[in-house]
Amino acid sequence: xxxxxxxxxxxxxxxxxxxxxxxxxxxxxxxxxxxxxxxxxxxxxxxxxxxxxxxxxxxxxxxxxxxxxxxxxxxxxxxxxxxxxxxxxxxxxxxxxxxxxxxxxxxxxxxxxxxxxxxxxxxxxxxxxxxxxxxxxxxxxxxxxxxxxxxxxxxxxxxxxxxxxxxxxxxxxxxxxxxxxxxxxxxxxxxxxxxxxxxxxxxxxxxxxxxxxxxxxxxxxxxx
Length: 224
Fold this sequence. Notes:
There is one protein chain. By secondary structure, the protein is of the alpha+beta class. The chain has a domain of 142 residues: 2,3-Dihydroxybiphenyl 1,2-Dioxygenase, domain 1, CATH 3.10.180. 21% of the residues lie in helices and 33% in strands. The protein has five helices and twelve strands. Strands 1-12-8-11-10-9 form a six-stranded mixed β-sheet. It has a four-stranded mixed β-sheet with strand order 4-7-6-5, covered by helices on one side. A hairpin with an 8-residue loop joins strand 6 and strand 7.
């Protein structure tokens, strides 16, 4: 099936469970909430433990995320003949989720460059992060600046070594960064919204009933 375009849907990595009929959108930046509430673990009943991205060079990407955002290697997980993974985490932060770096070894051609995905980081100083990214010769898409739509929160955008978009949100209350959300490019935005709402509802006892009523939902992938 040929997709005519991509849409971006954001997934807050720590969230309360909501009903499938809940139309409250997840903020692409999460900036409508404070950085603290974006990962409010105390009241959360469901959360996403990690966001995974395919990378062309595990060493390069690990060095980038550990140096720029202060992440640490939690563990490496090689699956022989399929994929090598490295799980990065924020060892000095109780908020946010891990980043999984994946490089496939099964011989299947993979496109690791400029995929429609976005990692959203909350940081103490957005300009320092974007300056560090620029110093590596990587692209800063948008300089950090107050965004009126998000209560003048300072937000900037840049690319990582494989062209993944990085949304960099400043919160001066933080002492260390954390990953607050991921954005996924999807071929059908409404189908993805329905699927996401139902996934958030999975901890509710009525999830199976709703899944039965909705039937199987398949998100078509674009031909590349």
